[in-house]
Amino acid sequence: MRLGLVIDLDTCVGCHACAVACKEWNTSGTTGALTDYHPYGAQPSGVWFNRIRHFELGDYPHNKTINFPMSCMHCENAECVTVCPTGASYKRAEDGIVLVDQNKCMGCNYCSWACPYGARELDRASGTMKKCTLCVDRIYDMEIPEEERQPACVLTCPAHARMFGDFDDPESPVSRAVRERGGYELMPELNYQPSNKYLPPRPTRPIPTEHLRKRGIRQVKDWIHQAVTR
Amino acid sequence: MADQVTVFEDHKNQRIEYSTCYMCACRCGIKVTVENDNVRFIQGNRNHPTNQGVLCAKGSSGIMKQNSPAKLHQPLLRKPGTARGAGEFVPISWEKALDMLTARLQHIRSTNPDKLAFFTGRDQMQALTGLWAQQFGTLNWAAHGGFCSVNMAAGGLYMMPFAFWEFGDPDWDRTKYFMLWGVAEDHASNPIKIALEKLKRRGAKFVAINPARTGYQAIADEWVAIKPGTDGLLALSMVHVLLERELFDWDFLVRYTNAPFLIIDAPGSSDHGLFWRNAAGHPQVWDMCTQNFADGMEAGANPSLSLLDKHITPDGRTVRTVMSLMIEKYLDASYAPEQVSKITGVPAETIERLALEMAQVAFEETIEIPCEWTDWTGRKHDKFIGRPVSMYAMRGVSAHSNGFQSARAIHLLQILLGTIDCPGGFCAKPPYPKPVPPPIKPAQHSAPNQPLSSSPLGYPTGPEDLVIDEQGNPKRIDKAFSWETPLSIQGLLHMVITNAHNYDPYRIDTLILFMANMAWNSSMNTVEIQKMLMAKDPEDGEYRIPFIVVSDAYHSEMVNFSDLVLPDTTYLERYDTLSMLDRPISETDAVCDSIRHPILKANRDVRAWQEVLVDLAGRLQFPAFVHENGEKRYQDYKDFIVNYQKEPGIGFLSGWRGKNGDQHLRGEPNPRQWEAYIDHQSFFQHHLPLNIRYFRFVNQAYLDFAVEAAYIPKAEPMFIEIYSEPLQRFRLAGEGVYDGPRPTQPADRERLVKYFDPLPFWYEPLEQQRVSAEEYPFFAVNQRPMMMYHSWDSQNAWLRQIIAQNFLYMNRERGEHLGIADKSWVWVESHNGKIRVQVKLIEGCQEDTVWTWNAIGKQSGAWALSPDAPEAARGFLMNHLISELLPEKTGERRLTNSDPITGQAAWYDLRVRIYPAAPGEEGTWPTFPTIKPLPDEPRPVDRLRYHTHPPVNLKS
Amino acid sequence: MHPALAVIFLTLFSGGGFGLMALTALVNDFQIDGGLNPLQTMIALIISMAFVSIGLLSSTAHLANPKNAWRAFTRWRTSWLAREGVFAVMYYPFAFLYLVWVFFTGGTHDAIGLILANLAAIIGLITIFCQGMIYAVLRTMRQWNTPLVPANFYAMGLAIGATWLAAIQQITTGQPDPALIGIAAALLVATGVLKGIYYFWISRPGGPTIRTATGFNRFSVRILDQGHTFGTFLTEEFGHRLPPAKAKSIKILMYLIAIILPLALLAIALWGQVAALAVLAALLVLTGFGVERWLFFIEAQHVVNLYHGRQQC
Ligand SMILES: Nc1nc2c(c(=O)[nH]1)N[C@H]1C(S)=C(S)[C@@H](COP(=O)(O)OP(=O)(O)OC[C@H]3O[C@@H](n4cnc5c(=O)[nH]c(N)nc54)[C@H](O)[C@@H]3O)O[C@H]1N2
Ligand SMILES: Nc1nc2c(c(=O)[nH]1)N[C@H]1C(S)=C(S)[C@@H](COP(=O)(O)OP(=O)(O)OC[C@H]3O[C@@H](n4cnc5c(=O)[nH]c(N)nc54)[C@H](O)[C@@H]3O)O[C@H]1N2
Ligand code: SF4
Ligand code: SF4
Ligand code: SF4
Ligand code: SF4
Ligand code: SF4
Ligand SMILES: [Mo]
């Protein structure tokens, strides 16, 4: 199995719901608590696994805004794991999920240097590295109703711009979406082979108006009066 | 799977509860996991009609709202001897607080009930607060609609059987072309997001009309960068294009609208522009087959649209159809795309193409749903025909002083295309459709110790329905239903403090505010409003607004300016109803309402406001709340909701009625109704069978159903009023020829004549008419950030990490041209004041517009934030620039900066000029004094590590 | 990158320490200018071990959870950081035994002495390589992802070692040693050249762009909002940058302190027979390379910055 996410850039409205739901689930999750620093102070910040960035393409008036959620890509070629000296970072053979064993991590930050996607954040309170767990404690928890055994971010996304599934199964919804919509990876040149894929905006359907134009402008007196019974 | 045996977290100490979110007015269903009385997780309820399992950022951060250090702890009284606004409070017991308030209110009620002004903000319980005000007997009640989006409600409800806002939705599952006008987030925030994805998946086209490109507009197939305040004109130009090519739904106009009705053409006479009615009072039409006049309200005629002809009636009157007036008006060259392009900034080619695209989809990509249904004439149909073009519009249109007419212009476009309440079109949500306008009139008189004869709010249909005295002066403190804003069907919350301060029209005694942050983001002209709240009368040394009572749950800016603070519970701690008598959570295809119930026990000395209202109603002996012998009729809010009946069988909640809980919509009170709701995940949903899902305004089976459910009084068709007779009546009054009340002041007369056009039209927003565009070259508007709800989310530890400072967003090229650098500080100046803010240059901004995120700026010290919080030090409010009054004109009284028809606050009419701040000039300006912490307010923590159990670490 | 003092000290001092060890072994192996006497050898060894210890200790200060530091050796099969740890620790027994051996026997270049010396030196050199590779394997930072990095690490470690050895030699004898000074000068020049090549290399554009980072290759791409008002771990760790003009002047300063001045001082020391100048040169080299380390970190641009608005196209 190769589990991961597909993010649909055609429908992501940039609402940050997935980021907050992730925070909410995971602060009591397997690597919680996710510390917040100065939560009510001058420079609030904290540990998050999922962050939404916003970009603009092109120049006004031919510009488009793209909302861009990013979390761990659960790379096939997870250098973050390779470089970890303690063995705290590991990639599960059975499903490809990349995790950090909080009991082993020494907080050297090295894995975060190796991650191109900014998926790892050090928790200064616990001194350990934390990252998206692909909600391993939701997707495998048999006490959670089956249809909810999904990552918190996927469950919550109002624009259904997030899909979760197995990329090794060519018929899974994620594989199909990637195939049909031209799903792509970020920074392929680095060869991390991220599992997560991004779906580009769909092309717009052209709507024919030529025949209506040809019809031309009519004088009111030429209108065809229709008898309609009220 | 490999991990099937792993134990992740212990669910034994957890329980699941279903309720309704309160982080905004969308009211999504939530599934809450509670662990040892702390919230483990809040997720969307998959079965809930509104959100179908999803949840937004605000909803998902409910934990941090519940955890907020800004929560109020106990009732507070302004410390005797200290000044209002100084922020000195002493705790007071609930008993003492309520005794004190009861005595005060009793005195007011027995002398002059209008001396109580009771106004509520973004609440979700107007059915209760309205009933309370009516029973108290004060005319001075309204909720927040007047400063929010009354233009959408009124614009729709005076034309159609339903409206934008919470009254209707596109048929998301079927529409093929969707046009979104001026919406950043809306009250249907999750439903719109769910829907946009559906649209895109189905390959429908999504066009967004908005000066800014973020959020929803980001994913639009086409972005139309319009100049603010010109939407009405854009819509009417598309009307022009459609009419010019005879692209409209002829049948729809004849059958369902008043387009064929005959209008009296007699300028100068008192019935000019009114319908030519028969003895039964019905408007008449010209029958093409019989070549004679016929009753427009009866089935069977073949009305002519008559285009340009005039008819002479037997009694010698000249009459013409509404359609002929439309033709004359909209085919005028001033609506041609080339002309309109200059004002709207939208290229002529685009205007024409969009109109034609919609015609193509409406008329050539029609959908049919096989289904037998019968219309009001008894005619049987074997299918619903759908014209799958739909639209939705909100505050980008409504928050302008021409928003009422602009909303109508957009509806007109939909009406021409025949996309009203049809498959793929714009559909009503029960209890709508309702007659045009809904048949409720505002109460006009108050008397000591007497309930009002009807609700303080209603729908005037002519000058005689205004709430004015014999001299024509306003009787309400907000001047609603006066000549200044006759159709202010939701009051003018934004005028209350100014008018009360000015004793205009009179001095009030007590102001009760529930859930409205009027000292800050919810007032225009914040600096002045704070002064007014603190102002004293030079003669008696009393405050000009003598007593201010605030119900809030958190330490908002408004709390700081109150005399008595009544602390509310949070949404996880109280009972609540989202009732059919109010604005329920219905879907277009289902009747729905819902509740909240206490999931957590409040750990503070707080009481739900609804409990306080029911308690006060008993203490004050409101007839509807006490037995003959004066004993309280309802023990508490829960009891009230179960047993109160508006009419036999109709109460606040429509599910599980009847003694045994087996009746829906109508039925006797069920003593176990709350339990039934809680058992059913806190909501009730009644699906409409297919045959009453469309064309409901003329669908006989639906009309019968709606009468049974008490949504409408009579099973009569509800025609669309393209031409509005009520508007014409006011116009006649302005012209001085109306047969009834007429205004005396020239300003009122002029406004009635100018703006009360019975057909939708466009005019330049009022403030802009008085402010030079050369001097103030930019339009300045706001957007809702998706992850923040007005002022109240800055206390949320998670959300404020996403946004704790707002910028002034500006078109990059334009900014660079003006020598303004990205992230630099600039001065922004309006006719009313100036602010210093930080700029961000972006692409997604119309070049003459600047915008910012709404309500991020905070007063230092409020919301339990540290005084140097960026919300106060670097964030800002646009409100300091906006005035609640129009720029002064000599010889004229000061007029409200609102739509002249509805009184909708014109937040987005603002024009500004912008110039770089001097080197070293940094930080937001103006600054305000730091608000003092309340007694008991916890010190902000440095680190927060919220969790409900120790982590179950997975081993590598 | 955040130029954390702990990491700067780690690579600077441990590199210098290993360099000093390597040169000590080299000089004694080949008895260059008669080799070092036991005292000089012992001083060199003590300084070498002190430097390595300073480096390693300061690196633990960099750990957020040092109680797990002992686990850092476990993944030596894959992690250069683990390997560095393993080798750094292995260096101690050999260096220490050599010290003991020289102390008790005076045998700076007898068989046992040389075996110990060379083992310590080789392990040290391997550690420098591991250290370089810690950075060089990271494809996330173009400025590091090059063989020039381990090459530079070697050049610098050895140059520090050589200048310090020259200084030790001079202090203990009061006489400048042309051979040692020559080695030091040569290594300094080599380091300068290598560093120059490195700076030239990093000045050319390369690596992922904001376009490949987002996948929009046919448009201009600009950040609108990074999604948080204040810093995060990522911006604090990676969000540092140096304006090019400032970088240039600091580099000139660095060349001056680390290479040009020491070369001049060494020359004066050689001709003027002023021992103290060699010490000053050694101190300057260390300081100058400290600045170089700082530049090495602050100039490294992590690709994640592309997601925070770095406008590389
Ligand atoms: N997240 C979140 N959701 C909310 C709220 C909140 O505070 N936060 N508030 C709730 C409330 S009370 C309300 S009233 C609703 C309002 O919901 P919206 O109607 O979405 O209101 P605004 O955010 O004011 O959005 C106005 C939009 O219109 C655009 N605009 C401004 N002027 C014009 C114009 O002249 N023409 C056009 N076409 N566009 C224009 C602005 O750029 C902006 O995108 O949202 C509700 N939902
Ligand atoms: N410049 C500008 N100003 C605007 C707008 C704009 O677009 N631009 N939009 C306007 C619009 S549409 C609106 S609706 C208003 C916002 O309307 P408001 O209703 O004033 O919104 P809030 O600022 O959220 O204030 C609500 C108050 O309710 C309190 N509250 C929260 N929860 C509870 C509770 O459970 N019980 C009680 N009793 N109180 C509670 C909060 O603490 C806060 O003080 O802002 C208006 N102001
Ligand atoms: S995204 Fe980063 S943390 Fe996640 S697997 Fe890839 S390299 Fe590792
Ligand atoms: S921070 Fe923790 S997980 Fe990351 S490399 Fe260091 S020890 Fe491994
Ligand atoms: S999969 Fe889970 S941990 Fe990962 S981003 Fe989504 S919610 Fe967060
Ligand atoms: S929740 Fe969905 S729409 Fe919102 S930011 Fe995340 S991915 Fe985008
Ligand atoms: S849209 Fe968000 S805040 Fe509003 S009710 Fe739904 S979940 Fe709650
Ligand atoms: Mo609103």
From TrEMBL, chain C:
- Biological-process GO terms, alphabetical: anaerobic electron transport chain
Keywords (alphabetical) are:
Membrane, Transmembrane, Transmembrane helix
Q: Name one GO molecular function term.
A: dimethyl sulfoxide reductase activity
A GO cellular-component term linked to this record: plasma membrane
User: Where does the chain cross the membrane?
Assistant: 43-64, 85-105, 111-136, 148-167, 179-201, 252-271, 277-296
Q: Which domain of life is it from?
A: Bacteria
* Keyword Transmembrane helix listed: yes
Instruction: Show the Pfam families listed in the entry.
Output: DmsC
Name recorded for this polypeptide:
Dimethyl sulfoxide reductase
Originating species: Acidithiobacillus thiooxidans ATCC 19377
